[in-house]
Amino acid sequence: MTSTHSRYHEVYARWKSDPEGFWADAAREIDWVKPADKVFDPKAGPHGQWFIGALCNTCYNAVDRHVPTRGAQAAIIYDSPVTGTKRTISYAELQDEVATLAAVLQDMGVQRGDRVVLYMPMIPEATFGMLACARIGAIHSVVFGGFAPKELATRIDDARPKAILSASCGIEGSRVVAYKPLLDEAISLSRAKPDSCLIFQRPQLESSLVEGRDRDWKEEVAKARAAARKAGCVPVAATDPLYVLYTSGTTGRPKGVVRDNGGHMVALKWTMGNFFGVDPGEVFWAASDVGWVVGHSYIVYGPLLHGCTAILYEGKPVGTPDAGAYWRVIAEHGVVTLFTAPTAFRAIKKEDPNANLLKGYDLSCFRALFLAGERADPDTVQWAERILKVPVIDHWWQTETGWPVAGNALGLGALPVKYGSPTVAMPGYVLEVLDEGGKPVAPNTMGSIVIRLPLPPGCLPTLWHADERFKEAYLDPYPGYYNTSDAGYLDEDGYIWVMGRTDDIINVAGHRLSTGGMEEVLASHPAVAECAVIGVKDALKGEVPCGFVVLKSGVTQSSEEVESELVALVREKIGPVAAFKLAITVGRLPKTRSGKILRGTMKKIADGDVWSMPATIDDPVILEEIGEVLKGRGLAG
Ligand code: COA
Ligand code: AMP
């Protein structure tokens, strides 16, 4: 199965025959302060590093270098239906905003290598903050606004930031979420206190500032501007971290994914033209959040490195005000490419199954829809194709990789689509599927999906201050490979089929969450003896968490009361993003004879899938009990 029009096979073969030459060519698209002495050093870091010896600045490449040629072009269009605000920021204005904010950060004592945590809603200042850090060589760590203070505190303790950037509030649909009290609580919970915080006061909710610690964003920027203070771009090593982005691990302790400067720029710039098929000057929209990797790579860095106009959308696919919101944004701003999670399209399809709201919008500019973040179910892909009449491209990647591992590279000419598969490995990646013993399996056989080392530029060099954890999690399971923790198979045409995770991660509305982390919260409730959290199928969010709890003997509270306390506890400790709404009390949990909880079988029962009695089960009756309880809750098929 090959397409005569696609250059994919030729480009992939070119990469495979000379990976370093391929990436050295791609690196010519970047302005370097000093070019690399060595394209790749397999001995640097835990598994090699790219562009050794090079000096560069990511903010320079994303902003300053475009100013002479596209200074008046929109760099960012902020479109916020939740506040009724729109703002277009040209490349020249972006340079001014970022350089001024970077000077403020320097006044706050932030220097090259210091960490700066951002806990921000989807406002332009969030992108200014990220770029300002990049400008002065500071390392940003953006924490998604839907996480609770305890989660934020964990990240603060790991990153030990010099400063924190935040805002008074976020806006979720019609709900104003006060961010500042959450930040204050997180700082009081954390051991690593920042020296200072810069707070952007939004008109929807002003918050009080802590004397001696907090500064008013607008006032500080105004002062710096009045004094004409701007920070220049500080050259950093290509291998220096640009950011740390925390992502769910198998326990409650998140993993600090490190992204370097040089390899990241080279890889993202390559993807914009070759993968997404977008030209400089065109309008690119990733409907995600700056708190996720999609937001880092494709709201901020990718489009700006490529000289595109990036859309920053503060709203939802539905309800702000309706399921036509995406069509309005595309038509109004001339978006050529939209990237979002399948769940957003499921939400639109649910509200407006016949896409009536599409009528009246001129989408002639629109060329392609890209979906990632969770498995793209064929129904949703085909529905989107039908209503939009453009290619709908499923692609698969992870926070760790920073850019697509597999997909259908539109810029190289698309290959034939197989619904349910994100197509083929991108240049940079050799995918294999291994059995439990680490042996390659035959085509169409399920196993663990691994990437042959070395990883290409842009992928994580390590975890923040945790080389050993990095090796244990990703390199040790299958020597010579990076373990993706995804399960699936390769078919006879080399198409990859990603079917689910091999660890305790679940994907809720495209958000990556740890069931282990939720179990830690449930277990902390005084009435709970033991618990298990699984992800169960959900028509909108793909999966939602479901917690089974066994109460301690002698507990006098009713199970209903404990269950609602558990729901509230997960929201309080992890945050609303966990979408934990289902706690179910059971008499006992099904286990193997060695005491391992049979989460996989419970999931199959809850999803109404075919399941077989595990040979190692301790007491088969328990699974029947679980099935009955689930049926009572409207689950189990
Ligand atoms: N700050 C504070 N709270 C937040 C938040 C933020 N930045 N983001 C989400 N939340 C809250 C939501 O308001 C919701 O709260 P609720 O339980 O009180 O309703 C909760 O966290 C769960 O959020 P979510 O799972 O996103 O559900 P939703 O009902 O708000 O929206 C979708 C569902 C499908 C519309 C939404 O998830 C979506 O647009 N997803 C696609 C785009 C995307 O985000 N992709 C990410 C990876 S590419
Ligand atoms: P995140 O790190 O939040 O981007 O989540 C990465 C995980 O989401 C992957 O390891 C997969 O489990 C899942 N995922 C992302 N994209 C896809 C896709 N296109 N198909 C199937 N699963 C996906």
Brief summary:
The protein is an alpha/beta fold.
Helix content: 25-40%
Low-confidence stretches: none
What radius of gyration results from the CA coordinates? 24 Å
- Largest sheet, described in full? 7 strands, mixed
Could you say which small molecules are bound to this protein? Answer: coenzyme A, adenosine monophosphate
Q: End-to-end distance, in Å?
A: 36 Å
Structural class: alpha/beta
Global morphology: globular
Question: What is the CATH architecture descriptor of the largest domain?
Answer: 3-Layer(aba) Sandwich
CATH homologous superfamily classification of the largest domain = ANL, N-terminal domain
Fold and architecture overview:
The protein has 637 residues and is an alpha/beta fold. The chain has 2 domains: 8-315 and 395-488, Rossmann fold; 509-632, 2-Layer Sandwich (GMP Synthetase, Chain A, domain 3). Helices cover 31% and strands 24% of the residues. It has 19 helices and 31 strands. The strands form 10 sheets. The protein has a 7-stranded mixed beta sheet, sandwiched between helices. A 5-stranded parallel beta sheet has the order 7-6-8-11-12, sandwiched between helices. A hairpin with a 5-residue loop joins strand 25 and strand 26. Helix 5 (91-107) packs across helix 6 (124-136), helix 5 crosses helix 9 and helix 10 packs across helix 11. The longest helix is centred in the N-terminal third of the chain and has 17 residues, at 91-107. The model has no long low-confidence stretch (mean pLDDT 96). Coenzyme A is lined by residues 145-146, 170, 172, 177, 287-289, 292, 294, 316-318, 340-341, 343-344, 347, 373, 508-511, 541, 576-577, 579.
